[in-house]
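Hi C.,

You asked whether I'd gotten around to modeling the 99-residue construct. I have! Everything is below, sequence then structure, no commentary in between.
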Amino acid sequence: MEACEKTIRQSVKAKTQYPAYTELLEWLSQMVKHPYSKTCINILKRIEKDQLQNMGSKTKLFLYIAMSNHYQHEHNYEMANHYLKKIIQENMTTAIELN
């Protein structure tokens, strides 16, 4: 666990022009310390609210998967399903853009 936390701390220090990256590291740090806590889902919600427009398709998918997993863990299947639908929509949009 300590090695994981050290790697996260080092990654946070790295310079990035991608604000969601730093926030995702914050989420990862919280997941290591307190898996599936309210803090974790609040970080993901903040990323979705503030950074979604600037995210690439793969990062959006990662975010939606993390959110769906969180809600499944909490047995909130309605919200888990909501994010599973977003995953499907994002995959369809990406496929259409590629054609």
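If it helps when you're writing up: The chain is about 80% helix and 0% strand.

Thanks,
B.
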